[in-house]
Design goal:
Low-confidence stretches: 250-263, 503-580, 825-847, 1087-1154, 1427-1480, 1495-1510, 1521-1536, 1806-1824, 1897-1929, 1949-1990, 1992-2013
Structural class: mainly alpha
Number of strands: 0
Mean pLDDT: 75
Helix content: 55-70%
Radius of gyration: 44 Å
Strand content: under 5%
Oligomer: single chain
Distance between the termini: 90 Å
C-alpha cells in the first residue's frame, strides 16, 4: 500500500486529478464537504476548482463519477464563478453522463443542467443540449429531450427558447428509436401547454398517426395558462412573494403572467421560409399573357399552389406582382381575376412586411376592380386587399385610397369605405394621427351623403370605427357640419365595432416590438403582422391628447411615404423622431393593485397611505429598492405609478416622502417600458411640484426621464398645456426652464413649434417677471434651432419685450445648437433618410420651418388686386404692390397657393419705373421667406425673371435683384434654378451686366453644391462666349466661374464642348480650361450636412451647414461663399460676422477694411491633394526653375484664388515690396488662429515664399524668414509632416539663401533648416543639402557642408543618402576646394563622421589625393584631443525627427555591406562615461554680453528649454511622441471604435497569409509608434503577443518548410514582427501588461528562432538573429520583472524536462536568467519575491539537487545558485519571510538552501560581497578597524583602476575623503604611476568643482539631489554594464547624466579641461570594443529601422537648439574666468526676477 499513503498526503485538488480512482473518489468526497462548508459564494476557494469541475462529471469510473456529479451540483449551486464552466460541463454531462446506465447519474446530470439554467446560463445549456440531439446514441438524445422538457416545464417558455426546439421536433418524430419518438411526443405536449395552437403549423407534416396521438394528448391539457414553478436567481425574490400571496389565498397572479408568455412565439416565426421564384413554371410569363384563358388559368394555378406556403423567402417579386396586377386589372375573365387576387393574398401573407414595397402598385388596381359584382370576385379582392394592408401602413397607401374615393361607381365607393373601416380596426390612436384622419374623414363625409344606401352604410361604419379607435375628441373637429341624426348613426356604428386587438391583445403591446410611430402608421420594421394583433386598443380616455404628436418620423425601413392628399399635414415632417413607442391600455385600479402587489413587498403597499409620514417614507424606500432590482420586461410601470398616485398621491405634504416619490417616478421611466398612458397618470402631479423649492429638481428629473421614454415632443406639449392651465407662476416659470434645458438635451426634432409659441406668448404676457424671463430664455434656446424666422411670431409684442427678446437672440447669435445628449439613438435615422432625398441637401433645414403654421392667402389675391398691379397708372400699380406687401407681412408664413399673383408680379419686374421694380423685388424677397421651401414651385415662373433683372443698367436695381435671387436660392436650393434651359437662355443674352452678375452668382453658389443637374452643360457654350466677351469684367467673371463649372461637369465634358468654337477661340478656351483645371476645387464633402441634422437642422438656409442660424440673421444679404468650406473644417468661425461675409468679386468697390475680416486662408476640401495630382499628371507646371518666370507666378496666382482671401492675394502679388511686407505681417498674425487654413494652403504659401527668395529687397527676405521660423514651429507642434511635393518645391530655394553674404540671413536659414527636420525626415533633407554643396557660391557650399556635419552628428550615419559611402565621397571632394572655408567645412564634417563612426570613415571616403589625406589625418588627430559629444548625442536621437518610413520597407532595405553602423558600440562606450564629453558646443556657449544687454531674446529661449526638459524627465513618459508620423488611415477607426478594430487587426497578425499578417503588423506598428495612440493597445497586449508567437510558430513549422514561398517574404515578415515587438517593449507601460504565460511562450518562440539554422543560411538571416537578440534584451528589461523571471524559470524547467529540447535552448534561457540576475539590484523592489520563490521551489521540487547534478552541463545548478545568492544578498534575512505562497516547504530544499546561504553570509560579514550590497559602502562606521579601512580603500582604488567603474570609484573616494578628512591615501597612490596619481587628483578636483559649483546655481534646484546619481556608488557594479551592452539605458540617471554634461558644456564646469588628454585617452579606449557582440554588429538596415525607434527612446536635451557648427571652442581654463561667469549669471538672474 505504499502508493496509498502517497496520495493521502496530496491536497484535495490534486487528489481530484489523481490516476488512482480511489484517490479521485476521496478527492471528490472531500471537495463535496468543502463545497458544503463554504458560506460565501464569492470565496476564492471556488476558483481553485474552476478547471476541475469538468473532470468531476466526466470521470471514467462510474462510481467515482456519481460522487463527482454530486460535488459538481453543489458547486454549480453555490459558487459565484460556476457560470464560467457552463459550456464544458454541460457538454461533458451530455456526452459522458447521459449515456450511463445508472439512472442516478442521469438524474444528477439533468439536475446540473437545470441548476446552470437557474444561475442565468440558460442559453449556453440549451445550445449544448440541442447539440446533443445530433448525437448518434439514442440514450443521449432521449436524455437531452427530457432535460429540455423539464427545463421548459419548470422555467417556462420565457427562459427556454422554443423556436430552436420546434425546428428540430419533426426530425425527432422521424427517429428510428422509439424512446426518442416517445420523448419527442412528451416535449411536444409540454410546448403546446405553453404556446397552444402556434405549434400546429410547424408539425403539420409529421406522420398522421403521431399527429393524431398528439391531438388527443393536447385535448387533455388543462386550459389555464401554465406558470413557471422554478425561477432564475434574479427572480427568486419574486417567487417568494408569489408563495406568500398564494398562502394568503390570492392566486390572483394568473392574468398578469399570461400576457407575458403567450405572444412570445408567433407561428410565422417558427416556419421555414420557402423559395418559390425559381419554382415558377419556366414559361409562366408567356402563358400569363396567352390569348387562351385556359393557359392563363394554368399559369395562375401554378402560382396559387406555390403561394400556399405559409412563409416565403424574400426575393424580387416585382415581375410576378406586375403580372398578377395585370390580370386583376385587365383580364376579362372574372374567374381569373379572383384567382390572381388569391395569388396576391398568398404572396402578401407569405411575405408579410417584405411585400410592403409592392403594395402601392397593387392597391389602386384592386380598388378599381371592386366594380365587379360577382360575390366570389369581390370576396377574393377583399381578402387580397386586407392581406396587403397588413404588409404596409395606412399612411403609405392613403393617397391611392383617397384617389379612388371620388370614383363615380357606387360599388367601388362602398368597398373602399368598407376597406377603410377594416383598416381602421387595425390602427391605434397613435397610428391614426389627425393628419391622416382629416383627409379620410373628408372623403367619408361625402360618402355619408351619397345617394346609394350601401355607400352611406359603409361610410358610417368607417367613421364609427375611426371614432372607436381614436376617441371622440380626435374625430369631432372633422364632424362639425354633420347633423345630429348622422352623428348618432356614426356613434351607433362605433359601439358595434369590434377592434382587432380588443380583448386578445392583453398586455402584449407593452412587451412586443410593435412600434407605432407618431405621425405614421406602424413602423414597417415591426415583425410580421404583429402590429395587427399585438397592439392593445387604448381606451379613449388617457390618450385623448396623443394625436397631437404630429412630428412623426419615417419608419426604419423604406423611404418616407409619399405626401397624403392636399390637406394632409402630417406628411410634411420629412424628418423627425423614429421611436419605439409603447402603447398600453389604461388599467383599472384593481388590476394595478394586483400587478403592483406581485412585484412590491406587501408592507410597502399597506403603508402607502399610512398617516405616519415616517412609515410612508420607509414604504417609499422599500418601493425604490424594489424598482431598482426589477427587470425591464417585468416592470408593470402603469401599476407602479398608479400606486404612487394613490392617496395621498401628489398631495403628499412631507417633502422627504415627496422627493422619494418623484425619484421613483424617474427610476420607473428610465428602467421600465414606460408608456404615455403611465405618463398621463403622473404628469399632472409632476408639473404641480415643479415649482416646489424642495422637490422641484426631483420633479424635473422625473420629467426628463419621461421625455426619454415617451419622446420629448409629446411630453413637452402635455407639460406645457398643464402648466399653463394652472395659476401658479412658479410652476410656469420652472416648466419653461425645464423645457429650455430639455430642448438642449434632446434636440429640436419633432417639436410642435406652433403649440409652444402660443404658450410662450401667454407667458410673455404674464404679470410675474420670472415667467417672462423663463419664456425669453426658452425663446433663446428655440432660436438656436429655428433661426431668425422665430422673431416673426413676436413682432407685435410690446417694444420693451421685443428688445429683451432681441437681446436674448443676440446672445445666441454665433452659437450652434449643442448636439443632443439624450434620446440620440432616435436621431440616427435622419442621416440615412437624407441620402434618399437626392444628392443635393434639399431638405436640409426644412424640418423646423415645416412646423410653422402657414396661412392661406390665395383668397386675398383678388382679381381687383391683380388688375391694380397691372394698371397703366404707376401710382395705382404701386398701391397694388403695397397691398401685396401688407398681405404677406400680416400672414408671416404663407401656403404656396398664391393664385394669380406670380403673373402679376412677373410683369412688374420689367416695369419702366425702376422704383416699382425694386419694390417688386423686395416683395419677392419677402415672399421667399414667407413661403419657405415651397417657393420651389415658383422658380420657373418668377425666379428666372428675377435673374433677367440682373441685367439692369442701374447698380442699385441689380443689387436688389441679386439679394432677391439669394433669398430665393436660400429657400429652394440650387437644383430648381439649374434644371432646364432657362438659366442658359439668360446667359445667352448679350447683356454685360447680366452676364457678369449671373456668372458671379454661379461662381459663388456652385462650389457649395454636392451635385448639379445635367442641364448645367447647357450653360457652357455661353460661358465660353463670355470668356471672349468685349467687356473685361465679363471675361474676368467667366474665368472665375470656370473652375466651378469644371468641378461639377469634369474637364472632359468641358473640353468636348469647345468643339463647336472657331479654331482660334478653341485654342484660347482650351488653354483657359487647362489653367482652371489646376484650380478646380474639390466638391464639398457630404457629411457636413448630415452633422447639422441631429441638431434639428439649420433654419431655412440650405447651403450653410452648421453655421446657418448664425449667418441667417441678416437674412437676405448673406452670401454664404466662404461658409461651406469654412464650416467643413472649422465649424462656425466667430470671425465670420455675417454682414461682412461678402466676398463677391463684383463688389470691388467695397471699402478696404470691410473686406478684410474673415479668414485669409479658406479650407478647400482635398484642394491640396488635387493640386498634387495635377502636378504629378503634368497638368500644371512643376515648380522647378532657376529664376521664376511669369507663367509660374500666374499659375500660383490662379491656384491661390480659390483658397486665399482676395485682398490678401492682391497684396501678395503686388509689384511693390511694401505690400509683400504687409501680406507677411497679416500672415504672421493669422498663423495661430488659422492653423487648418495654413496647413491646407501650405504648398501654395511655401511656393509664394520661394518667389520672395528671388526678391532683391532684404526687408522682405528677413520678414519671410521670420515667418518661416514661426511656420515650422507651428507645423512641428501640430505634428504635421511635409509632403514630398511641398519639400521639393521649397527646400532647394531655401538652400540658395544659405549662401547669402549677410550673416544674419544665413543664421536664420540655418535655424529654419534645423526646424524643418522636425517636420521632414533628416535623411530626406540630406540629398537637398548635398545638392547645395555643388553651388558656385562658396559660402553656400561651406554652409551646406557644415549643415551636413550637423545632420550626421545629430542623427548618425543613417541620414547619409543614398548610402554613407557615396555621400562621404562627395563631401571628401570638397577637401580640395580652392576656398579655405569650404575646405574647413568639409574637413570638419568628415571629422564629425569620424567621431561617430571611427576608422571606418577612411574606407567610406575612398581614395583621396595625398595632400587631402594628410590634411584630413592632421585634422582628425587634432580633434582627438578634444573628444566630441557626438556619440552620446547620436544615441539620443531626437524623438521629433522620426523618419516616417514604414518599418518593413526600411528594415530590409538592401545596401552595400560597408554601410555598417557601429552606433551601438559608440553608445556603449560613451554611456558609461558621459563626462568624457566635455567639449562645449557652439550652441551651448553663453553669449553673456548679449544676454546682459538684451533680456528679450533669452527670455524666450531659456525657460522653454528648461521647462520642457524637466517635464520630460519627471513625467513617466517612456516614449516621447513621434512628431512626424504620417497618420495611417486606420487611425480614425482606431480611436473611434478602438477595441474592436484592434481585436480585428490583432486577429489578422496570426493569419496564414503573409501579406495579411504584414499589413496588420504595420498598422499596429503605426499605433505603437505614437505615444498618444499607443495607449489604445493597452489591454490587448497579451492577445497581441499570443497572435505574434502563433505567427512565429507558423513560420517555423509551415512557411520555412514551404519550398514555394520566397524566403524574402519570410524575412520581411520576421522583420515586421521583430520591429513591432521592439516598438512594443520600448513602451514600458504596455510591456508590463504581458503576463507570465504569454512571456514564456514568447521567449520560447524567440529563442527557437535564434537557434533556427535554416535562417542563418539565408543572406539576411544573420541580421534577423541579431535583431532578435536585441529584442530579447528589450523584453528582459522592460517586461514586468516578476512575470519575466517567472516565465524564464518555468521555461528552463520545461526545457530541461523535455528530452527533445536542445541543450543550446536551455543555455540561452539560462543566459537570459543571468541577465535578469544582473538587473536584480535595480529591480528587486518591484519584484514579487513570493511568486519567484514559489517558482524556484517548484523548480527545485522537480529538479532536486541530485537530479540537477546529473545534467550534462553544470550551468543549471550554477544558474539557480547564482539567482538565490543574489536574492539573499539583496534582501538579507528578510528573504525567509517571502515563502508565504509555498504550501509545503519540505517538498524542496529551497528553505534549507536559503538558511545555509544566510548563515554563510553572516559569517562572511567582512567579505567584499557583503559590502557591495551595503547602500553606499562609503559610510563606514567610525569605529571600524584599520584593517577594514584599508580593505575599503583598496576596494575603491580597485574600482578606479577598472575601466567600467572608474567614475564610481572616484566619487566614492571623494565621499570618503570628505567624511574622514584626516584619512591617508598616500600609501595607495605611492605605488602607482605618476599618470594614475595626477588622474586621481584631477578627478577629485572635477568632482569637487561639480559639487561646489552646483550649490550656487539655482537652475539645477529641484533635481540637484538626483544630480549626483553617478556619484553615489551604485549598489552593484553590474548596473552600468547592463545599461551599456545594447546602449539602451533609459533610467532617469541617464538623462540626469546628460543634463550634467549640458551644464558642463554651458561653461559651468570647465576647469582643467586643457590638461586632460590622458583622461580622455584612457576613457576613449573602449570606443571600439575588441569583440563586438551580436547586438553591436547590427547591420545598418536594421539601424535604419531603428532610427525612428531609438529616437523615441532617448530624450534629446537640446532639441530646441540649433546645430553646432563644428568649430568647437573650449572655454578658458582660469578659475577666475569661471567665477566671473558665475557672477554675471547671478546678475542676469536677479535682473530677471
Amino acid at each position: 500500500m505504499g502508493d496509498d499513503s502517497e496520495w493521502l498526503k496530496l491536497p484535495v485538488d490534486q487528489k481530484c486529478e489523481h490516476k488512482l480512482w480511489k484517490a479521485r473518489l476521496n478527492g471528490y468526497e472531500e471537495a463535496l464537504k468543502i463545497f458544503q462548508k463554504i458560506r460565501d459564494e464569492k470565496s476564492p476557494e471556488w476558483s481553485k476548482f474552476l478547471g476541475l469541475i469538468k473532470k468531476f462529471v466526466t470521470d471514467s469510473n462510474a462510481v467515482v463519477q456519481l460522487k463527482g456529479l454530486e460535488a459538481a451540483l453543489v458547486y454549480v449551486e453555490n459558487a459565484h464563478v460556476a457560470g464560467k464552466t457552463t459550456g464544458e460541463v454541460v457538454s461533458g454531462v451530455v456526452t459522458k453522463v447521459f449515456n450511463q446506465p445508472k439512472a442516478k447519474a442521469k438524474e444528477l446530470g439533468i439536475e446540473i443542467c437545470l441548476m446552470y439554467i437557474e444561475i442565468e446560463k440558460g442559453e449556453a445549456v440549451q445550445e449544448e443540449l440541442l447539440k446533443g440531439l445530433d448525437n448518434k446514441n439514442p440514450k443521449i438524445i432521449v436524455a437531452c429531450i427530457e432535460t429540455l422538457r423539464k427545463a421548459l416545464s419548470e422555467f417556462g417558455s420565457k427562459i427556454i427558447l422554443l423556436k430552436p426546439i420546434i425546428k428540430v421536433l419533426p426530425k425527432l418524430f422521424e427517429s428510428r428509436d422509439k424512446g426518442v419518438r416517445d420523448e419527442a411526443k412528451l416535449i411536444a405536449v409540454e410546448i403546446y401547454r405553453w404556446i397552444r395552437d402556434v405549434l400546429r403549423p410547424p408539425l403539420q407534416n409529421i406522420n398522421s398517426v403521431q399527429l393524431k396521438e398528439l391531438e388527443e394528448e393536447w385535448v387533455k391539457l388543462p386550459t389555464g395558462a401554465p406558470k413557471p414553478t422554478r425561477f432564475l436567481r434574479s427572480q427568486q425574490e419574486l417567487q417568494a412573494k408569489l408563495e406568500q400571496q398564494q398562502s394568503a389565498g390570492g392566486d390572483a397572479e394568473g392574468g398578469g403572467d399570461d400576457g407575458d408568455e403567450v405572444p412570445q412565439i408567433d407561428a410565422y416565426e417558427l416556419l421555414e421560409a420557402v423559395e418559390i421564384l425559381s419554382k415558377l413554371p419556366k414559361d409562366f410569363y408567356d402563358k400569363i399573357e396567352a390569348k387562351k384563358w385556359q393557359e392563363r388559368k394554368e399559369a395562375l394555378e401554378a402560382v396559387e399552389i406555390l403561394v400556399k406556403n405559409p412563409k416565403l423567402e424574400a426575393g424580387d417579386y416585382a415581375d410576378l406582382v406586375k403580372a398578377l396586377k395585370k390580370v386583376v386589372g385587365k383580364d376579362t375573365n372574372v374567374m381569373l381575376v379572383a384567382l390572381a387576387a388569391k395569388c396576391l393574398t398568398g404572396l402578401a401573407v407569405g411575405l408579410r412586411k417584405k411585400f410592403g414595397q409592392y403594395a402601392g402598385h397593387v392597391v389602386p388596381t384592386i380598388l378599381e376592380k371592386f366594380k365587379e359584382k360577382k360575390p366570389q370576385v369581390v370576396q377574393a379582392l377583399q381578402e387580397a386587399i386586407d392581406a396587403i394592408f397588413l404588409t404596409t401602413t395606412l399612411q403609405n397607401i392613403s393617397e391611392d385610397v383617397l384617389a379612388v374615393m371620388d370614383n363615380k361607381n357606387p360599388t367601388i365607393k362602398q368597398q373602399t369605405s368598407l376597406f377603410i373601416a377594416r383598416s381602421f380596426r387595425h390602427c391605434t390612436a397613435s397610428t391614426l394621427p389627425k393628419s391622416l384622419l382629416k383627409p379620410f374623414c373628408a372623403g367619408l363625409l361625402k360618402h355619408i351623403n351619397d345617394s346609394a344606401p350601401e355607400v352611406r352604410d359603409a361610410a358610417f361604419e368607417a367613421l364609427g370605427t375611426a371614432l372607436k379607435v381614436v376617441g371622440e375628441k380626435a374625430v369631432n373637429p372633422f364632424l362639425v357640419d354633420v347633423d345630429k341624426l348622422k352623428l348618432d348613426r356614426i356613434k351607433e356604428c362605433s359601439e358595434k365595432v369590434e377592434l382587432v386587438h380588443g380583448k386578445k391583445g392583453g398586455l402584449a403591446a407593452e412587451k412586443k416590438e410593435c412600434k407605432p410611430v407618431p405621425g405614421r402608421s406602424a413602423s414597417s420594421g415591426a415583425a410580421g403582422d404583429k402590429d395587427t394583433k399585438d397592439v392593445s386598443a387604448p381606451k379613449p380616455g388617457p390618450l385623448k391628447k396623443a394625436p397631437a404628436t404630429k412630428a412623426g418620423g419615417p419608419p426604419k425601413k423604406g423611404k418616407p411615404s409619399a405626401p397624403g392628399g392636399a390637406g394632409s399635414a402630417g406628411t410634411k415632417n420629412k424628418k423627425g423622431l423614429e421611436t419605439k413607442e409603447i402603447v398600453e391600455p389604461e388599467l383599472s385600479i384593481e388590476v394595478c393593485e394586483e400587478k403592483a402587489s406581485a412585484v412590491l413587498p406587501a408592507t410597502c403597499i399597506q403603508l402607502l397611505d399610512s398617516s405616519n409620514w415616517k412609515e410612508r417614507l420607509a414604504c417609499m424606500e422599500e418601493f425604490q429598492k424594489a424598482v431598482e432590482l426589477m427587470d425591464r420586461t417585468e416592470m408593470p410601470c402603469q401599476a407602479l405609478v398608479r400606486m404612487l398616485a394613490k392617496k395621498p398621491g401628489w398631495k403628499e405634504t412631507n417633502f422627504q416622502v415627496m422627493q422619494m416619490k418623484l425619484h421613483i417616478v424617474a427610476l420607473i421611466a428610465q428602467k421600465g417600458n414606460f408608456s404615455k398612458t403611465s405618463a398621463q397618470i403622473v404628469l399632472d402631479g409632476l408639473v404641480d411640484k415643479i415649482g416646489d423649492v424642495k422637490c422641484g429638481n426631483n420633479s424635473k428629473e422625473a420629467l426628463t426621464a419621461i421625455a426619454e421614454a415617451c419622446m420629448l415632443p409629446w411630453t413637452a406639449e402635455q407639460v406645457m398645456s398643464m402648466a399653463f392651465s394652472q395659476k401658479n407662476p412658479k410652476n410656469q416659470s420652472e416648466t419653461l426652464n425645464w423645457l429650455s434645458n430639455a430642448i438642449k438635451e434632446f434636440g429640436f426634432s419633432g417639436l410642435n413649434v406652433k403649440a409652444f409659441i402660443s404658450n410662450v406668448k401667454t407667458a410673455l404676457a404674464a404679470t410675474n417677471p420670472a415667467v417672462r424671463t423663463s419664456a425669453i430664455t426658452l425663446l433663446g434656446v428655440m432660436y438656436l434651432y429655428v433661426g431668425p424666422s422665430l422673431r416673426m411670431f413676436f413682432e407685435d409684442e410690446k417694444p420693451a419685450l421685443l428688445s429683451q427678446i432681441d437681446a436674448e437672440f443676440e446672445k445666441m447669435q454665433g452659437q450652434s445648437p449643442p448636439a443632443p445628449t439624450r434620446g440620440i439613438s432616435k436621431h440616427s435615422t435622419s442621416g440615412t433618410d437624407e441620402g434618399e432625398d437626392g444628392d443635393e441637401p434639399d431638405d436640409g433645414g426644412n424640418d423646423v420651418v415645416d412646423l410653422l403654421p402657414r396661412t392661406e392667402i390665395s383668397d386675398k389675391i383678388t382679381s381687383e388686386l391683380v388688375s391694380k398691379i397691372g394698371d397703366k397708372n404707376w401710382k395705382i400699380r404701386k398701391e397694388g404692390l403695397d397691398e401685396v406687401a401688407g398681405i404677406i407681412n400680416e400672414a408671416k408664413f404663407i401656403q404656396p397657393n398664391i393664385g394669380e399673383l406670380p403673373t402679376a408680379l412677373k410683369s412688374r419686374l420689367n416695369d419702366s419705373n425702376k422704383i416699382l421694380v425694386q419694390q417688386t423685388l423686395n416683395i419677392l424677397q419677402q415672399l421667399a421667406v414667407a413661403m419657405g421651401p415651397n417657393i420651389k414651385q415658383h422658380v420657373k415662373n418668377l425666379g428666372i425673371p428675377i435673374i433677367t433683372v440682373l441685367g439692369d443698367s442701374k447698380n442699385n436695381v441689380r443689387a436688389a435683384a441679386l439679394a432677391t435671387v439669394n433669398a430665393w436660392a436660400e429657400q429652394t436650393g440650387m437644383k430648381e434654378w439649374l434644371e432646364g434651359e432657362d438659366l442658359s437662355e439668360e446667359l445667352k443674352r448679350e447683356n454685360p451686366f447680366l452676364r457678369q452678375e449671373l456668372l458671379g452668382w454661379l461662381a459663388e453658389k456652385l462650389p457649395t453644391l454636392r451635385s448639379t443637374p445635367t442641364d448645367l452643360i447647357l450653360c457652357v457654350p455661353h460661358l465660353y462666349s463670355c470668356l471672349e466677351d468685349r467687356n473685361g469684367d465679363v471675361r474676368k467673371k467667366a474665368q472665375d466661374a470656370l473652375p466651378f463649372f469644371m468641378m461639377h461637369l469634369g474637364y472632359e465634358k468641358m473640353a468636348k464642348a469647345t468643339g463647336k468654337l472657331k479654331p482660334t477661340s478653341k485654342d484660347q478656351v482650351l488653354a483657359m480650361l487647362e489653367k482652371a483645371k489646376a484650380n478646380m476645387p474639390a466638391k464639398p464633402a457630404a457629411p457636413a450636412k448630415a452633422t447639422s441634422k441631429p441638431m434639428g437642422g439649420s433654419a431655412p438656409a440650405k447651403f450653410q451647414p452648421a453655421s446657418a442660424p448664425v449667418e441667417d440673421s441678416v437674412s437676405s444679404t448673406v452670401e454664404p461663399k466662404p461658409d461651406p468650406k469654412k464650416a467643413k473644417a472649422l465649424g462656425v468661425s466667430s470671425k465670420a460676422k455675417s454682414a461682412q461675409g461678402k466676398k463677391v468679386p463684383s463688389k470691388a468697390s467695397l471699402k478696404d477694411d470691410e473686406d478684410k475680416s474673415g479668414p485669409i486662408f479658406m479650407v478647400v476640401p482635398n484642394g491640396k491633394e488635387q493640386r498634387m495630382k495635377d502636378e504629378k499628371g503634368l497638368k500644371v507646371l512643376k515648380w522647378n526653375f532657376t529664376t521664376p518666370r511669369d507663367e509660374y507666378i500666374e499659375q500660383l496666382k490662379t491656384q491661390m484664388s480659390s483658397c486665399v482671401a482676395k485682398w490678401l492675394q492682391d497684396e501678395m502679388f503686388h509689384s511693390d515690396f511694401q505690400h509683400h511686407n504687409k501680406a507677411l505681417a497679416v500672415m504672421v498674425d493669422h498663423l495661430e488662429s488659422e492653423k487648418e487654413g495654413v496647413i491646407g494652403c501650405l504648398d501654395l504659401i511655401l511656393k509664394w515664399l520661394t518667389l520672395r527668395f528671388f526678391d532683391t529687397n532684404t526687408s522682405v527676405l528677413m520678414k519671410a524668414l521670420e515667418y518661416l521660423k514661426l511656420l515650422f514651429t507651428l507645423l512641428s507642434e501640430e505634428e504635421y509632416h511635409l509632403t514630398e511635393n511641398e519639400a521639393s518645391s521649397f527646400i532647394p530655394y531655401l538652400i540658395l539663401k544659405v549662401g547669402e553674404p549677410k550673416d544674419v540671413i544665413r543664421k536664420d536659414v540655418r535655424a529654419i533648416l534645423n526646424r524643418m527636420c522636425l517636420v521632414y525626415p533628416a535623411s530626406k533633407m540630406f540629398p537637398f543639402i548635398m545638392e547645395g554643396t555643388k553651388s558656385k557660391n562658396s559660402k553656400q557650399r561651406a554652409e551646406c557642408l557644415e549643415e551636413l556635419g550637423c545632420l550626421v552628428e545629430s542623427y548618425g550615419m543613417n541620414v547619409c543618402q543614398p548610402t554613407p559611402g557615396k555621400a562621404l565621397k562627395e563631401i571628401a571632394i570638397h577637401i580640395g576646394d580652392r576656398d579655405n572655408t569650404v575646405r574647413n567645412a568639409a574637413l570638419n564634417t568628415i571629422v564629425t563622421v569620424y567621431n561617430v563612426h571611427g576608422d571606418q570613415v577612411f574606407k567610406l571616403i575612398g581614395t583621396l589625393s595625398e595632400k587631402d589625406m594628410s590634411m584630413l589625418e592632421e585634422r582628425i588627430k587634432r580633434s582627438a584631443k578634444r573628444p566630441s559629444a557626438a556619440p552620446i548625442k547620436q544615441v539620443e536621437e531626437k524623438p521629433q525627427r522620426t523618419q516616417s518610413i514604414s518599418s518593413n520597407a526600411n528594415m530590409l532595405r538592401k545596401g552595400p555591406a560597408e554601410d555598417m553602423s557601429s552606433k551601438l558600440n559608440q553608445a556603449r562606450s560613451m554611456s558609461g562615461h558621459p563626462e568624457a564629453a566635455q567639449m562645449v558646443r557652439r550652441e551651448f556657449q553663453l553669449d553673456l554680453d548679449e544676454i546682459e544687454n538684451d533680456n528679450g531674446t533669452v527670455q524666450c529661449e531659456m525657460p522653454e528649454l528648461v521647462q520642457h526638459k524637466l517635464d520630460d524627465i519627471f513625467e513617466p513618459v517612456l516614449i516621447p511622441e513621434p512628431k512626424i508620423r504620417a497618420v495611417s488611415p486606420h487611425f480614425d477607426d482606431m480611436h473611434s471604435n478602438t477595441a474592436s478594430t484592434i481585436n480585428f487587426i490583432i486577429s489578422q497578425v496570426a493569419s496564414g497569409d503573409i501579406n495579411t499578417s504584414i499589413q496588420a503588423l504595420t498598422q499596429i506598428d503605426e499605433v505603437l509608434r505614437q505615444e498618444d495612440k499607443a495607449e489604445a493597445m493597452s489591454g490587448h497586449i497579451d492577445q497581441f503577443l499570443i497572435a505574434t508567437f502563433m505567427q512565429l510558430r507558423l513560420i517555423y513549422n509551415t512557411h520555412m518548410a514551404d519550398e514555394k514561398l520566397e524566403k524574402d517574404e519570410i524575412i520581411k515578415l520576421y522583420s515586421c514582427i521583430i520591429g513591432n515587438m521592439i516598438s512594443l517593449f520600448q513602451i514600458e507601460s504596455l510591456a508590463r501588461e504581458a503576463s507570465t504565460g504569454v512571456l514564456k511562450d514568447l521567449m520560447h518562440g524567440l529563442i527557437t528562432l535564434m537557434l533556427d539554422s535554416r535562417i542563418e543560411d539565408l543572406e539576411e538571416g544573420q541580421q534577423v538573429i541579431r535583431s532578435v537578440n536585441l529584442l530579447v534584451v528589450k523584453v528582459l528589461e522592460k517586461s514586468d520583472q516578476t512575470n519575466i523571471l517567472s516565465a524564464l524559470l518555468v521555461l528552463l524547467q520545461d526545457s530541461l524536462l523535455a528530452t527533445a529540447s536542445s541543450p543550446k535552448f536551455s543555455e540561452l534561457v539560462m543566459k537570459c536568467l543571468w541577465r535578469m540576475v544582473r538587473l536584480l539590484p535595480d529591480t528587486i523592489n518591484s519584484i514579487n519575491l513570493d511568486r519567484i520563490l514559489l517558482d524556484i521551489h517548484i523548480f527545485m521540487k522537480v529538479f532536486p539537487k541530485e537530479k540537477l547534478k546529473q545534467c550534462k552541463s553544470e550551468f543549471p545548478i550554477r544558474t539557480l545558485k547564482t539567482l538565490l545568492h543574489t536574492l539573499c544578498k539583496l534582501k538579507g534575512p528578510k528573504i525567509l519571510d517571502h515563502l508565504t505562497m509555498i504550501d509545503n516547504k519540505n517538498e524542496s530544499e529551497l528553505e534549507a538552501h536559503l538558511c545555509r546561504m544566510m548563515k554563510h553570509s553572516m559569517d562572511q560579514s567582512g567579505s567584499k560581497s557583503d559590502k557591495e550590497t551595503e547602500k553606499g559602502a562609503s559610510r563606514i562606521d567610525e569605529k571600524s578597524s584599520k584593517a577594514k579601512v584599508n580593505d575599503f580603500l583598496a576596494e575603491i582604488f580597485k574600482k578606479i583602476g577598472s575601466k567600467e567603474n572608474t567614475k564610481e570609484g572616484l566619487a566614492e573616494l571623494y565621499e570618503y575623503k570628505k567624511k574622514y578628512s584626516d584619512a591617508d591615501i598616500e600609501p595607495f597612490l605611492k605605488n602607482s604611476s605618476q599618470f594614475f596619481q595626477s588622474y586621481v587628483e584631477r578627478g577629485l578636483r572635477v568632482i569637487e568643482m561639480e559639487r561646489e559649483g552646483k550649490g550656487r546655481i539655482p537652475t539645477s534646484t529641484g533635481i540637484s539631489s538626483q544630480m549626483e546619481v553617478t556619484c553615489v556608488p551604485a549598489p552593484t557594479s553590474t548596473v552600468s554594464s547592463i545599461g551599456n551592452t545594447n546602449g539602451e539605458e533609459v533610467g532617469p540617471s541617464v538623462y540626469l547624466e546628460r543634463l550634467k554634461i549640458l551644464r558642463q558644456r554651458c561653461g559651468l564646469d570647465n576647469t582643467k579641461q586643457d590638461d586632460r588628454p590622458p583622461l580622455t585617452s584612457l576613457l576613449s579606449k573602449p570606443a571600439v570594443p575588441p569583440v563586438a557582440s551580436s547586438t553591436d554588429m547590427l547591420h545598418s538596415k536594421l539601424s535604419q529601422l531603428r532610427e525612428s525607434r531609438e529616437q523615441h527612446q532617448h530624450l534629446d536635451l537640446d532639441s530646441n537648439q540649433s546645430h553646432s557648427s563644428g568649430t568647437m571652442t573650449a572655454a578658458s581654463s582660469s578659475t577666475a574666468n569661471i567665477d566671473d561667469l558665475k557672477k554675471r549669471l547671478e546678475r542676469i538672474k536677479s535682473s530677471r526676477k
